[in-house]
Amino acid sequence: MISLISFLVVIAICIISHEYGHYKTAKLAGVQVHEFAFGMGPVIWQKTAKDGTQWSFRIFPVGGFVRLAGMDEEKPGEEVVKGGAFTEKTAIQRFLILFNGALANIILAILLTAIFLYGHGILDLDNTRIGELMQGFPAQEAGIQTSDVVKEVNGTIVDDWNGMSKAIKESAENGPVSLLIDRNGNLKSFNVEIPISEEYGVPLLGIRPAYRSFSLAGSVIHSFSYIFRMSAEWVRGIYMLLTNQSDADITGPVGIASLAGRAARAGLWSFISFLAIINLNLGLINLFPFPGLDGGRLVFIFIELITRKRVPDRVENFIHLAGFIILIALILFVTWKDIIRLF
Question: How far is Cα 300 from Cα 321, in angstroms, rounded to an integer?
């Protein structure tokens, strides 16, 4: 039940923010909006606003859409006011309307990351300060303390956590490890025997990095750099997946629900972190230049900007329909794999 509720909360936040990005940009561009819907299937609640937009909730809360005038989605009795059709707008306006749905998700991911950095902080891997000792491991038994800073491992200077961790694991295979530690300005030496942990399968000293907290301004600034790095890793991962250089797996709605439940059970900050990652992924996926996605539609606008001619509507619609069918098939396949994995 926790997984289901968490999944619905995640989907609601992601979909509403994405569609609101489309909606707000369309309204600013003077496009008539017939409907803003959350969910799919039959309508269970709806209200018509003063500007004529229908706001509705539908029975299956796993999607949503903004129905814009002039996109051949008018219902009987709906009229398109002059100048209010999406297709009547300039290529730049249409580009922004399509692009800003994904942008809304990315902006939300940045804001959630900033909240996480400010309220929770992150493990500081840029130095070798010890933040926590693991119970029953060699570091605790040797007398190493929290706030100690590891300066050298077997005579090799280390200045970041990953480099220190790698040096300790490599040195532990050849016998006791010599550690030079700075404790409040005083240097202390330790010779520590680090056996292979039965639980983790590697030599483990039993230390964790300290947390780094940020000011409000610092959290906002650093959130941009974190999102940029995660985006670059996402693009790299997609490239490696498409070129068969990676065996990374893809998860669908069932897998996301399972992960959302785990994040919720781990606490508020874990859930906020998960929500930021999902929003970033949704934004980037929608910008992927594949028919049926916003990115696929943006490709046609690029073609229009370059050639000064629109691709015929029937050609574009056919390509998007084919892409949509492929996407649905992929979602069904991934969902089936998620179900098999769970059971």
Answer: 14
Same domain, 179 and 306: no
Do 322 and 177 sit in the same domain of this protein?
no
Residue pointed to by tokens 């077997």: 154
The phi and psi torsions of 249 (rounded to 5 degrees) equal: -95, 155
The DSSP letter of residue 72 is S
What span, in angstroms and rounded, lies between the C-alpha atoms of 260 and 258?
5
DSSP structure class, residue 144: -
What does 213-268 look like in DSSP terms, one character per residue?
---HHHHHHHHHHHHHHHHHHHHHHHHHHHTT--------HHHHHHHHHHHHHH-H
- Ranges 16-25, 170-179, 213-222, 249-258, most confident: 16-25
With beta carbons less than 8 A apart as the criterion, state whether 36 and 56 touch: yes
Domain holding 148, by residue range, is: 130-212
**Threshold 0.85, pTM exceeds:** no
Nearest C-alpha neighbor of 115 from the set 219, 222, 10, 266: 219
CB atoms within 10 A of CB 291: 20
3-state secondary structure of 30: coil
pLDDT for the residue numbered 249: 67
